[in-house]
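Entry type: protein chain
Record version: 2
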Amino acid sequence: MKGFLPPGFLAIDIAHGLGLSLFDPDKQNTAVDPTQGKFSKNGLIAKEANKPDVLVAANGGSDLIYLPNSANNKAIAKQVVNILLKEDYVSGLFVNDKLGSIPGTLPLSAIGLDGKSHLPSPAIVVNFRTFDTGCGDPTACGVEVADSSLQQGQGMHGSFSRADTYNYMAAIGSDFKKAFVNRVPVSNADVAITLAKTLNLNIPHQGKLIGRVLHKSLVKGVKKVSFKSNTLTSQPSTNGLKTILKYQIVGSTRYFDVAGFPGRTLGLAK
């Protein structure tokens, strides 16, 4: 539709910027010609489809970029980042630590995406721009650019705006305090481990990203939990853009509030 971004717009722009062809990995790597109105949700970018240089996984409010050609990854990563820094729909970039520091970006480790999963880690995570519709409560009526096959108004999430990260959570039961408002940051990762605590269950786990018990909300929990806020800022790119990450810490658990380029992400003033 005229005036709308097509699904797979990120892959289209990267392919154009690199001067490479675009293929659809979900349709047996058939060639995609955007000038003919064709598009694909996910994108494989290369001279030849069987030798991909860049893979783009469309993910709604953010996209994941993979670089399969390990021999040339650092050079391609810098090229892709330079392309993305010129696009006004981008708001914040995170790059795999193994690719080194790139101005304008923060490392994946800053947002906990440098784990040891058997699945490949993305080379670059792209956060898309978000907007305030002007209702007076930005976290309740924010909108976002999204790489999706859904139409405008059908709903989406996955961006790093405060409209996506700020959520209401509630609990009721004999183990929880009544009419109690907990201002300490929490996340959905805390739900399972808190319920396990109330049931005296020991849940086996791998890794460290398991959340924490919400002791302050429990009847027999502690009365005071301290937390602090931090901001992480990247080195500026040549056009002055900086990826900024705001987060809170409770003990050793980190809670991400908002990230992106100032003025392009709800919650980050220009």
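Comment: The chain has a mean pLDDT of 92.
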